[in-house]
Design brief:
This protein has about 375 residues and is α/β, with parallel strands linked by helices. Helix content is about 45%, strand content about 15%. It folds into 2 domains: about 1-180 and about 355-370, Rossmann fold, CATH 3.40.50; about 180-350, Rossmann fold. The protein has helices spanning about 10, 15-30, 50, 70-80, 80-90, 105-110, 120-125, 130-145, 155-165, 190-200, 220-225, 240-245, 260-270, 285-290, 305-310, 320-330, 340-350, 355-370, and strands at about 1-5, 35-40, 60-65, 95, 110-115, 150, 170-175, 205-210, 235, 255, 275, 295-300, 315. The strands form 2 sheets. The chain has a 7-stranded parallel sheet, sandwiched between helices.
Length: about 375
């Protein structure tokens, strides 16, 4: 059984879509017998450190195009070039891991699955360059035409695909994301303190993880600091855009970039509360990472974050700084019910554990391959 998979983000993206693909590939390899083989199609080798996170296995191998230029490699990935290579390799099913599929799969007789993470570019085009929205919309509609099955990573995304893509419900399956196992492992105290010293972290801080951009709405958490004890700081981890420079200046706000996965796991365990003030998400995997790490969560209502965090996390309007501060206060160390909320949230997120996610994806593969 030979499965092709879109590996561009696996070798290029350190967070988000890259983590989703690498975690799923590793879990699929672990969950299948030796007669399954996964061909990972990428336009180039990308970053060695990211490529190495796909665990070595005789069941998984990277495939690259012969094309010489960047433009040729990009066209290979979305057109008939990659399809011809899949026919050569004996691929019977292709999984587009990041919302897109190459043209010509149906005509070549190759079954296909696509994972749609979000349709924010259609729901909130104001957060994107106009040309990007056109390109993303074209890729989405092409994927809807080509795909035999669509995986939505949340019920919110499923509803968006049905409404904005005109896709019938029977073609869509909701399969939530899982997070890397390292976020469930307790780190030694000396490792935690080493990370604290490296980044000059305060003793008490809220943690936020994600690209520091307008949609992520970090300003809400910054404004909420005014309603919290003066020794509570905010640490935000993620790539910084122009929006980061527009945030209110405060000695209690610390912006970090270039944090490794191991250091990120330590930051979760050093923090007191995880905050995710985003206005709109397809799912919100950092919430799962935080809960596995033993943190209570405050997030914003209005998209799908309640699905990720469950009933024992707290949710506030994305424009309510006072309400956000109050919710954080209810979850600080020593607050009544904090530990029980954490315990129940950890029970809730067990539904997102990797083997279960891989098992659901494999069920879709097997259904399509038996047709």
């Amino acid at each position: 059984m030979i499965i092709g998979m879109d590996a561009k983000r696996l070798v290029r993206n350190a967070t988000g879509l890259g983590n989703y693909g690498r975690t799923l590939v590793n879990d699929l390899v672990a969950a299948t017998t030796d007669d399954w083989h996964f061909r990972l199609y990428a336009p180039d080798e990308g970053r060695p450190d990211l490529r190495s996170k796909v665990l070595p296995s005789t069941k998984a191998s990277f495939i690259y195009p012969e094309a010489a230029t960047g433009l040729q490699r990009s066209l290979w990935r979305i057109g008939t070039g990659i399809v011809r290579d899949m026919q050569r390799d004996g691929v019977c099913l292709y999984h587009g891991l990041t919302g897109e599929l190459p043209r010509g799969l149906k005509a070549a007789g190759i079954r296909s699955v696509v994972t749609i993470h979000d349709l924010i570019f259609l729901r909130h085009p104001e957060y994107y360059h106009w040309l990007d929205t056109k390109i993303y919309a074209w890729k989405f509609r092409n994927a809807c035409r080509e795909a035999d099955r669509i995986i939505a990573i949340s019920e919110r995304t499923k509803q968006d695909v049905m409404e904005l893509g005109g896709v019938s419900e029977d073609r869509i399956r909701v399969i939530y994301q899982s997070c890397a196992p390292k976020f469930r492992d307790l780190l030694q105290e000396d490792v935690l303190q080493q990370v604290r010293r490296k980044y000059g972290l305060p003793q008490r801080f809220l943690l936020s993880v994600g690209t520091i951009e307008e949609r992520k709405n970090l300003a809400l958490a910054v404004h909420a600091l005014a309603g919290l004890p003066s020794d509570i700081h905010l640490v935000a981890v993620g790539r910084q855009t122009r929006y980061a420079r527009q945030l209110p200046k405060s000695s209690r706000v610390h912006l970090l970039s270039g944090v490794s996965d191991d250091e990120l796991a330590a930051l979760y365990q050093l923090a007191e509360v995880f905050v995710y003030p985003s206005r709109y998400e397809g799912f919100g995997i950092p919430i799962i990472e935080a809960i596995h790490s033993g943190l209570p969560v405050v997030a914003c209502s209005g998209s799908c974050l309640e699905e990720a965090g469950g009933p024992d996390s707290l949710y506030v309007s994305p424009d309510d700084a006072e309400g956000f501060a109050h919710a954080v206060t209810l979850l600080l160390k020593g607050a009544e019910g904090r530990e029980e909320r954490i315990r129940r949230s950890q029970q809730y997120v067990r539904r997102f554990e990797g083997r279960d996610v891989a098992g659901q994806v494999l069920t879709i593969y097997q259904e399509l391959l038996s047709l």
